Amino acid sequence: MKQQRLVLIGNGMAGVNVIEQILKHNKEMYHITIIGNEPHPNYNRIMLSYVLEGSKTIDDIVLNDHSWYKDNQIDLQTGTAVTHIDTEAKKVYTDNGSVFSYDKAIIATGSQPFVLPIPGVDKQGVIGFRDIQDCNQMMEAAKTCKKAAVIGGGLLGLEAAKGLVHLGMEATVVHLGNVLMERQLDDIAANMLKEELERQGIRFAMEKQTVELLGDERVTGLRFADGSVLEVDFVVMAVGIVPNTSVAKASNMEVARGIVVNDLLQTSAPDVYAVGECTQHRGLCYGLVAPLFEQGAILAKHLCEIETKGYEGSVVSTKLKISGVDVFSAGEFQDQADMTIVRMQDDWKKIYKKILIRDNKIVGGILFGDVSESARLQKLVNTQTEMTDEVYASIMGGGACCGGGNQAALVAEMSDEEIICGCNGVTKGSIVTAIKEQGCSTVDEIKSCTGAARSCGGCKPMVEQVLQYVLGDHFDINANKQGICGCTTLSRDEIVAQIQEMGLTTIKEVMYVLAWKNPEGCSKCRPALNYYLGMIHPTTYQDEKASRFVNERLNANINKDGTYTVVPRMYGGVTTAEDLKKIADVAVKYDVKMVKMTGGQRIDLVGVQKEDLPKVWAELDMPSGYAYAKALRTVKTCVGSRFCRFGTVDSIGMGIALEKKFERLDMPAKFKMAVNGCPRNCAESCTKDIGIVGNDGGWEIYVGGNGGIKARVADLLCKVKNDEELIEICGAVIQYYRETGKYLERTSEWVERMGLEMIHQNVVEDVENRQQLFARIELALAQVQDPWQKVLQDQETRTKLFEPIKVESLS
Ligand SMILES: Cc1cc2nc3c(=O)[nH]c(=O)nc-3n(C[C@H](O)[C@H](O)[C@H](O)COP(=O)(O)OP(=O)(O)OC[C@H]3O[C@@H](n4cnc5c(N)ncnc54)[C@H](O)[C@@H]3O)c2cc1C
Ligand SMILES: NC(=O)c1ccc[n+]([C@@H]2O[C@H](COP(=O)([O-])OP(=O)(O)OC[C@H]3O[C@@H](n4cnc5c(N)ncnc54)[C@H](O)[C@@H]3O)[C@@H](O)[C@H]2O)c1
Ligand code: SF4
Ligand code: FES
Fold first, then answer.
1. pTM (two decimals)
2. Does residue 405 have a pLDDT over 60?
3. CA of 379 to the centre of ligand 4 (A)
4. Of 18, 95, 234, 488, which residue is 20 to 30 A from 380 by alpha carbon distance?
């Protein structure tokens, strides 16, 4: 049979998903041309929020690279905009003069950001957030701009604001109404959300109508209807979207808000279909991916001449993609007179759950703080399931309901066409096929085979349920589990729990009792176990030097030429003429190759021979700077109130006090601090594990900053009024990190994993818990001793570790 020519206009998520499905149904039926005006191959637009937030790169979000088009003999035209279609001659015209004939055409041109019709929107520094180019522009702007306004407190605006805060900008969300995400949340959930986002550093200007963007060429501020002004140097417009209908309009097709389509996604022109955000179906335009995939599944079948029932519309659900903030909303969300509402609000744990019931059928729901049942709630809303005691118990918690059994029943009832992974449009049927025909037996295998669970991860519990449903007893939920290394399938938390519960005291014992595959362990698990055991048993554990990395064994940093670097401590970055003299004398005497200032305000003696290390340390007679250790490295300070005219507090004094207090203690990874005398932040608190800034007569405490390979701006944890509280909270944060961090996990990752809220709850709000953490860190600190003092007093260690091996001459 002769191949028909299929032209897809728009190389985005909805259109390419249709093509993927057509290729699955019938690879031979069409010769396919895809015309897209972006310069990139198809990518996952929803992941742009993660790119901005820094947890993904552009490469990570490409869905189909150029080889996919080539392998499927698809003619891809990038950077090409379609101008119009001659629907009688069946030709597609583009802005570069090329023309493509078709038998069938699909318009999938998506939407564009709505731009407020106010003066100044065309100034430099004002953008929407829709594509890779916008994302790149925001990342570039963050290098020079300081203050951003995000107009619009919907899903996009909030995700953009969080991304900008991550990039180091001060971001204010300017919102028209008095509640955020008013299309998905009721007042209670919206207020909880706002509080949480404020804690994460986002600022809000609520009930503000922007009437003008100020500035000459470049934006300098926003003027509001009430006359007030917000000074900014960058603006992101996130006030909604408008379907891209220009191609359809120029081709005389029926267009309302979107391109009008029927249940088979047919437009008013013969053989021209439309799918995705550009469409209007039964009066509705959608702005989320799940409905677009549902439309796509139907269109692909129809184009492959497979019988299908038409598209009847979708019940939408949303999940905000901001780490540490769990919000989910599905279906209806505002109380109505004809509804019964089930509501649970826990202000202490910051959890809110609401189920909306009409005629005893579940028609909507909101989850905040605990979204573990989101997939289930979504399904209940989609199928308008009857409310029962069991459903109540499983969603609201506290009941003995066996969620698993019900989940299984839910999965069994789902049709093959139902979408399990909303982000990637993966149906139950595709997952079942991947299990039955491609032998997938773990979530990871399903992920790489079908794409399910590869974006927000919200569908993972449902994917597990499908695996359980198809494989029955053969499904091993633990098969997905990644142990801390190849020697075990146990996670960090499981190992720590077992050490505590079973009272395990040595590395060997842990490996034996917990059935390590490799009885000797490996270079990954041995140092980790050494750390966990030391952290759990601070007074009794005998540190196993042999299980530490070489730098820590020798208390010095090894260089690539086999020499070592010596870094003496300089508390708070302050030194004395006497110490400088000693450093100079040692450098001359031991022929040190380089004397270098470090970024942490101290001095590196680079290029010391191994055998000279004990002598160098003895002559320096200064404390070790721990530059080799997974422990507190430096506390960087600014001049502060002692000399600086802006200084509001004694940052040097506090820096020295903190460094003396918390030095030498083992932590999961290296740890850096900084103390600043005012918000000018000369000592860069924002990139430190704990950063402290003097402000308003007190201190601000920031956590989770990192200036290294994966830069992250620290989050404001809290503000305190006095020095004692500051030291206690810092101690509690460090101990909480020591007790819950994974070995080698920096606080930047730890804060993301735990969530700022959880850390705040444990070290700030719960005063009793904070004091207990502080008591435990005091106990651990009481055991530490300068390692070089120990070595200098121990001739056996000196000989074993540092003296050259003498080779006896045989002659
Ligand atoms: C930052 C961000 C985060 C999001 N997060 C989520 C989320 O978490 N969950 C969710 O469900 N949804 C989310 N969305 C919405 C989701 O991305 C869209 O619903 C989805 O991408 C729409 O798919 P589409 O194919 O209809 O449009 P698009 O993906 O926009 O694709 C349309 C393509 O057509 C091209 N085009 C337009 N006109 C022409 C022309 N004349 N000629 C050629 N090409 C043209 C466009 O450049 C574009 O590449 C997010 C959107 C953004 C911007
Ligand atoms: N996690 C997700 O699911 C996700 C993430 C990002 C984007 N999206 C989708 O992308 C699309 C665009 O998102 P969006 O947030 O721009 O759209 P939206 O329509 O959901 O929200 C726009 C917000 O801007 C506010 N607003 C309108 N005019 C304003 C004004 N003059 N000043 C201040 N605020 C004003 C509205 O009250 C509304 O809350 C939507 O379809 C959304 O669903 C989804
Ligand atoms: S942070 Fe403030 S107090 Fe410290 S040196 Fe800079 S300007 Fe002075
Ligand atoms: S629903 Fe987001 S990854 Fe599946």
1. 0.65
2. no
3. 14
4. 18
